[in-house]
Target: Nuclease inhibitor
Amino acid sequence: MIQIFGGPPAGLQNAPHDVRIIAAGHQVAVREVNFSTVHDKDSLMLAFMAGLGLTDRFGHNWDALYDVLTDPESPRKRLALVLYDYARFRSRRANLCAQLESVLFDAQRTAAEQDRDLWLLIEEADSDPRHW
Model:
């Protein structure tokens, strides 16, 4: 596998094995968002809230998610979002997934414009459970 953190983020990418270890070597912060219990927009926003460690002040909408991911005041210049169980979510909720991907890709582009990196990594439930 090509070293994922050696190049710029490029849309959705498969998470490498031992993503946390590899990310640490490249000074990339890792946050995990678990999609296994996401069934609507509310539960999706709660999954991001939990995965990103957000407070109750998080707005639970697309604009708020975009703002969190592109916050120029964030101390993280390099962030990898590991989207756990994402393929199954995509097959269950295609419309919601399309809205989410629009926000994530916009945030990824904006991060690049801010000289930041935002990787969007997919890891499936049947992969190595020791990561979770």
Notes: The CA atoms of residues 11 and 105 lie 6 Å apart. The first helix runs from residue 19 to 25. The two ends are 22 Å apart (CA to CA).
